[in-house]
Amino acid sequence: MILNSRLILALDVLSRDRALHLASTLKDRVDYVKVGYPLILAAGLDIVGEIARIAPVIADLKIADIPNTNTLICEQVLDSGAAGIIAHAFVGRDSLSACVDAARECGGLVFAVTEMSHPGAEELMGPAAERLARMAADCGVDGVVAPATRPERIRLVRSIVGDRAIISPGVGVQGGSPSAALKAGADSLIVGRSITESPNPAASADAILREIR
After folding, report:
1. Which end of the chain is more exposed for a tag (fewer CB within 10 A), N or C?
2. Looking at residue 120, what is its pLDDT?
3. Residues with Cβ < 8 Å from 120, sequence gap 6 or more?
4. Does an H or E element contain 144, and which?
5. In DSSP terms, which residues pair with 35 in a beta bridge?
6. How far is 213 from 199, CA to CA, in rounded Å?
7. Catalytic residue among 27, 34, 62, 183, which?
8. CB burial of residue 175 (10 Å; 0-12, 13-18, 19+)
9. Quick count: other Cβ atoms within 10 Å of Cβ 183?
10. What is the distance between the alpha carbons of residues 207 and 191, in angstroms, rounded to a whole number?
11. Whether 27 is catalytic
12. Pair 51, 76: CB distance under 8 Å
């Protein structure tokens, strides 16, 4: 992984032009740009490759299907230019392993979700986070997703996954603290609306970077 700034931009916008402008403006401030369903559905899969020519892309499709379907999804998005993908671990070892195998064929990275950052994740994902993290490590993922909104969960996951990367969403609008998440063991922070909806995205990114440095 590239880990210079420790910042991953969540590009949850719907306009192709806006997405490309933000990526170009912020490319020197972030390690990766995270692109998900909203932008891909609005602008088409080609947007992955367009952004990848500006900055490395993690495709956040939270892949969660049977092994064969997972393989097909991974191949499509990695062939389009993504450097990595995010997949759910809760669908089981065989499905997650299919993502890992497909990524290895394409030279891509795989991040498995152990727990999401919104309050509802505590209902079912929270109690299973330890098992999901252990399974993800066993499957050979490059890293996992753990919530910046609950630093204690990052600390638990770190004790399980060792030196695998932990990327943490929920900073900013959802209330996660950059410094608390990093202190708990996160490697990179995923930040979206606090930057993309700011009147001055570059200044907002710089403010976060000053805090985490």
Report:
1. C
2. 74
3. none
4. strand 143-145
5. 59
6. 23
7. 62
8. exposed
9. 12
10. 12
11. no
12. no
Those residues of the chain that have pLDDT short of 50 are: none
Backbone angles phi, psi at 3, to 5 degrees: -135, 65
Give the C-alpha separation, 137 to 13, whole Å. Answer: 32
Task: Give the model's pLDDT for residue 189.
Answer: 97
Element (H or E) spanning 149, and its range?
Answer: none
Q: Which two tokens stand for residue 33?
A: 């740009």
pTM (global) more than 0.90: yes
Token pair for 209:
């970077």
Tokens linked to 154: 């990052």
Question: What single-letter amino acid sits at 53?
Answer: R
Phi and psi at residue 85, to the nearest 5°:
-135, 160
Helices (H) and strands (E) in the chain, counts: 10, 8
Q: How far is residue 22's CA from residue 151's CA, in Å, rounded to a whole number?
A: 28
Q: pLDDT (tens digit, 9 = 90+) per residue, 100-117? A: 999 999 999 999 999 877
Give pLDDT, residue 122: 74
Identify the pLDDT of residue 2. 52
